[in-house]
Amino acid sequence: MLAGAALVLAPTPACAAAGEEDLLATGIGARERALGSAIALGGPGGALYWNPARLALAGGTQIEAHFAPLAEGASLDAVHVAWPFGPGVLGGSLARIGIGDIETYDPLGTPTGSASFGDIEIATGYAVGLTWPPALARADESTVASGTGAGGSSALDVGVSFRLRRQSFGGAAATGIGLDLGVAAHPRPALDLGLRVRNLLAPALTLGTEAERLPRSLALGAAYERSLAGRPLLFTAETGFGGGTTPFAAGAEFQIVSNLTGRAGMNGASPRFGLGFTAGFLAFDYGLESHDLGLVHLVSVTARLGEGAADRAARAEQAAAAERTAAATAAAEQALSGATETLRSRARATEDPAVAEAAWLAILAQRPEDPEAKAALLDIEARRVAAARDSVRIRESERAAAVNRLQAEAVAREAAGDPAGAAAAWGRILAVAPDDPAVVENIGRVRDRLSATADSLVATREDLGARTAELERLGFLVRALEAYAVGKSDLATATLDSLLAIHPRDETALAIRARIAPSSALTDPEVREQARRLYVEGMRLFNAGDYAGAIRYWEELLALDPSNSAVRLNLEEARIRLRSGG
Q1: Is 223 helix (H, G, I), strand (E, B) or coil?
Q2: Which residue, of 130, 484, 488, 516, is most buried by count of CB atoms within 10 Å of its CB?
């Protein structure tokens, strides 16, 4: 059950004549009035006045009592009731304005005495939540359903209220019937929209000579909730058209701490402020308004009890979810048992230890305490250890056999005069038995023999090099002498010059060339020495393949000694080779 009470603790203007101002249309609730707008807010408090569609958000049975002292001894009393009924929520309201001892006058202004004025309204309404279109439906009830923010438990709420209105003044009385319509939409989790048509069917009240209908009006509102520093921040806005409405109203609400909320709003040109405080199931709201006659203080106290339609639906959904979870768990357990037995059969039947181990491990992953799987894995591990030991023994035997075979090979190669082969065999033994000192000693001994053999080979190679150079030198001398013997002095001279290009100080070559060379026209010793250097340098470049360089030196020599036929032959040969590219 939800019980509430609201008090307006400051005077308000006295009501005017019947039919001119609908005082009972004044909104109820310190929170709603402090925000300046409640068309799109959730919660059923005063819903038959603010928006009948808000009845659909009742969290359970709610009773709200309202009392406000007005000016001139007037008072406003109201009681609002809402309770879940069928698929929606049913609401009822009784409101009364009473003013006593009103002085009366005739048309000429003469006092005629006093009379009392009374205005009573009995209202009933019904609201239901819809979930069309389905994409807009919500799975849970938001904070506004409890009157704390924007949002609702369905995509669209629709409500209607019927009002029986009776006014009396003096001995006259009038009764009329009215109808209001309200709509609340929740297109997004943080956004709510509201629409209210008041006096869609307007009561017609006749206290004088003519019937007066209460003004028809349309109001549109919105509420939007955001998060600021991890706390909810709510904005509201409203606009109205028709009699008794405000062109624009807006407000904001922020949760200062977990149980304290601050509010501020504007209704037309009237600023409003408020605070909200919660303690358990109780909520205290305070509002402050500024009017022409001064400040108006409002206080509301609300207690939320009972279970509403949304709570019952949520509880039913939780129960259904629990049943689904239990069914899914049972099905999973059954499937797990089947999978476990399949793995057990595979592990028992296979001859492959790896396949059996994988199957038993899979069983343990599903059932960590399975005794058969534990025992089987221990047996597999024991057999693996035994096989590893046997493998180690086999490897040790094979290693010993390999060492004996390689030792025999090393000894045989060393005996056959093949120290390199013996060293290779001992090296392979060292790879098998790295800690055997005898192997290391034998490798050192064979290495020493190989070093001595290498030194001998180097000396032999150097001697062979010297002998080869001498044979090459003798070849040049023999070819020169053979050419000279058959009368080819020029070829003999060129051959000796080639030798002198390699060994410029070869005395034998110089002596033979001096004997077989034709007499030179050069008589100056310095010129002859220059000619000799030019010839030798040309031969060096010719033998190196630099024919252009050789031609350059020999042309310079020919300029010194034009009668030197050997130089001419060399020049011709160098030019031929240069033209042929090598």
Answers
A1: strand
A2: 484
Count of domains in the chain?
3
Clarify whether residues 168 and 234 are in a common domain.
yes
The per-type count for the chain, helices as H runs and strands as E runs, is 12, 17
- Which H or E run includes 129? strand 111-130
Task: Give domain status of residue 450, yes or no.
Answer: no
pLDDT digits (tens, 9 = 90+) for 121-162: 899 999 998 865 544 444 333 344 344 444 445 678 999 999
Instruction: Write out the E strands in 189-247.
Output: 191-201, 204-205, 212-213, 217-228, 231-242
153 and 203 share one domain:
yes
d(CA 466, CA 474): 12
Residue numbers of the domain that contains 73: 2-104+113-306
Domain shared by 405 and 498, yes or no: no
Candidates 546, 545, 569; CA nearest to 557 is 569
Q: 239 and 263: one domain? A: yes
Instruction: Decide if 157 contacts 53 (C-beta within 8 A).
Output: yes
This prediction has a pTM of 0.49
255-264 confidence digits (pLDDT tens): 999 899 999 9
Pick the closest to residue 239 from 194, 290, 179 (CA basis): 194
Q: Are 290 and 193 in a shared domain?
A: yes
Asked if residue 12 lies in contact with residue 68, where contact means CB atoms within 8 angstroms, the answer is yes
CA–CA separation, 27 vs 54, rounded Å?
13
199 versus 27: the higher-pLDDT residue is 199
Same domain, residue pair 200 and 332: no
Instruction: Give the residues across from 84 on adjacent strands.
Output: 89
Strand partners, 315: none
329 and 295 within one domain: no
The span from the CA of 430 to the CA of 424, in Å, is: 10
